[in-house]
Specification:
Number of strands: 0
Structural class: mainly alpha
Shape: globular
Largest sheet: none
Oligomer: single chain
Distance between the termini: 6 Å
Helix content: over 70%
Length: about 280
């Protein structure tokens, strides 16, 4: 039970970090574009983590590297595709559609009626908190919806591959290699789209903040968390992310929480409680 609680706390800490990092990313996308933002985020995260991780090339099997490759694809795809979806969709709708990925993963791994109830509550809560029900869906970009859905698939792949990497690689070493490989692919694309603006001091500073708060810190926390909880639990707990975003908007940006959003937050908290209660009984 102690290990499960530790894992859940790490997930919640990662969510908080991502939301604050997202505020800085929102100011960076208009200046360097989606590809430029992801390129800065991943490359600078690799630089920040390198002296901490001290990665080694030798001592790993081909199977270990295949797991890192899967995590690389998941990281690059999840971040890039989601940022492109934000160029076409309202944030609340994009987050809701993307969450179908980990929610589907949770449903696939469910084992009881309580699990299904938790999944249903989390799904309803995410929809309410995001504000998707108040958006005119007839005016939405179909391409944007598809991109957000694909980002959700990558999110589910990320959770699975991160768990496998965490089981076979020491500490954060496997994660670092995945971030490095992602940046090698993304940086040239970011330079092509953003040009010299990508390395402007202001953009580099903002990119460094985004790298730490949206990549280096949360991915490290989740890597450790997925050593203590399964992907079904992770899929449900990440439903708290839109609720955290709504709360941060209220506290920091002065955005009002609507009644449906508060109800949705209650649903998500109830879902997390059901999952934790199930794990407590299994101990």
């Amino acid at each position: 039970m102690v290990a499960f609680v530790r894992g859940a706390i790490l997930v919640f800490m990662a969510i908080l970090s991502v939301q604050f990092g997202g505020a800085f990313a929102a100011t960076l996308i208009p200046r360097v574009g989606a590809l430029g933002t992801v390129a800065l985020r991943m490359s600078l995260a690799a630089i920040v983590l390198a002296p901490i991780v001290r990665p080694r090339i030798k001592g790993h099997t081909r199977a270990d590297w295949r797991r890192v490759l899967a995590l690389t694809i998941a990281l690059a795809g999840m971040n890039t595709v989601f940022y492109f979806s934000l160029e076409r969709l309202p944030l609340g709708v994009a987050v809701t559609v993307e969450f179908l990925g980990p929610l589907g993963m949770a449903a696939f791994g469910s084992r009881s009626l309580r699990d299904w109830l938790a999944i249903a509550l989390a799904g309803c809560g995410v929809v309410e908190v995001s504000g998707a029900l108040t958006t005119d869906w007839s005016q939405l970009d179909v391409v944007g919806l598809v991109l957000a859905l694909v980002a959700g698939v990558f999110w589910a792949l990320y959770a699975t591959s991160a768990q496998l990497v965490g089981m076979t690689w020491p500490k954060l070493e496997g994660l670092w290699w995945a971030i490095l490989f992602s940046s090698i692919v993304l940086v040239p694309s970011g330079l092509v789209t953003a040009g010299i603006h990508l390395v402007a001091p202001r953009n580099l500073f903002t990119g460094a903040v985004v790298a730490v708060m949206s990549s280096a810190l949360p991915y490290s926390l989740e890597m450790y968390a997925l050593r203590h909880i399964d992907t079904m639990v992770y899929g449900v707990l990440t439903g708290v992310e839109p609720a955290v975003a709504a709360t941060a908007g209220f506290l920091i940006l002065g955005q009002n929480l609507t009644v449906p959003q508060m109800i949705g937050m209650t649903f998500v908290v109830a879902a997390a409680w059901l999952v934790m209660a199930r794990n407590r009984q299994q101990e």
